[in-house]
Amino acid sequence: MSETFSRKISLREDLSLWILSLLSYLLIRLYVATLRKTYINAEGYRRRYEKDEGMIIAFWHNQLLTMPLFYFGRRFGLSTLISLSKDGELTSRIVRRWGIGTVRGSSHRGGIAALKEMLRLSRDSSHHLALTPDGPKGPPFVVKDGPLILAMRSGRPITPLAVAYQRYAQMKSWDGFLIPFPFTKAYFVSGDPVHITEEADPEGLDRARARLTAALHATNALAMSMRTPKGIRIS
């Protein structure tokens, strides 16, 4: 449930963020409630979540919007990594309203301290960790070192997740952010856990990166196979 490395903000800013995060949370919660959800291969994932078999959960950054619908279990039984940017402050507050803890930092700033905090949380088997391995700024669909090092040092498997929508819009952002249409079908898929056993050297990281990338692509391919392509791209 820990949140670290937040920048200092004024009382006025804090109040504005409190109001904006509440309104954003309520709007998103109402919006995603309209989706017709199907969960695929999720039994093992749900069992590991509920039986306190600590996981690292990974999914591509462009699927962030509806991933809270894949979080089962107790409030603050899961924490996710969010950048120290101004946008990250708002995102962190919205996420915490879902009952998801946040750790602040990224590969660009605060990364070492954030990794230490995630490792501390990983000592509690009832606490799960969620990461976007290509976030917060890309390149898209490229796994960075952080999730791999976290898995190597914690001994936790990485469970790849994916979501695909029957009808959606795709933004012209760096990650091609996905926004489902209201009332469309959403297919949530859990892949097989990836156990990172390589050494934390350049060669080991490259081999682990290739395996996790393949697992994420396979999970996404299965999710996409559930739908008939009807997406559109907007700016």
Task: Give the SSE map.
Elements: H1 11-32, E1 36-40, H2 43-50, E2 56-58, E3 78-82, H3 86-97, E4 101-104, H4 111-122, E5 128-131, H5 145-154, E6 158-165, E7 168-171, E8 178-180, E9 185-190, H6 202-225, E10 232-234
Parallel strand pairs: 1-9, 2-5, 2-6, 3-4, 3-5, 7-10
Antiparallel strand pairs: 6-9, 7-8
Helix pairs in contact: 1-3, 4-5
What would you note in describing this structure?
With 235 residues, the protein is α/β, with parallel strands linked by helices. The protein has a single domain (11-228, 230-234), classed as Glycerol-3-phosphate (1)-acyltransferase (3-Layer(aba) Sandwich), CATH 3.40.1130.10. The chain is built from six helices and ten strands. It has helices at 11-32, 43-50, 86-97, 111-122, 145-154, 202-225, and strands at residues 36-40, 56-58, 78-82, 101-104, 128-131, 158-165, 168-171, 178-180, 185-190, 232-234. The strands form two sheets. The protein has a seven-stranded mixed β-sheet, with helices on both faces. A three-stranded mixed β-sheet has the order 8-7-10, with no helix packed on it. Helix 1 packs across helix 3 and helix 4 (111-122) runs parallel beside helix 5 (145-154). It is globular, with a radius of gyration of 17 Å. The N and C termini lie far apart (35 Å). 36% of the residues are buried. The model has no long low-confidence stretch (mean pLDDT 90).
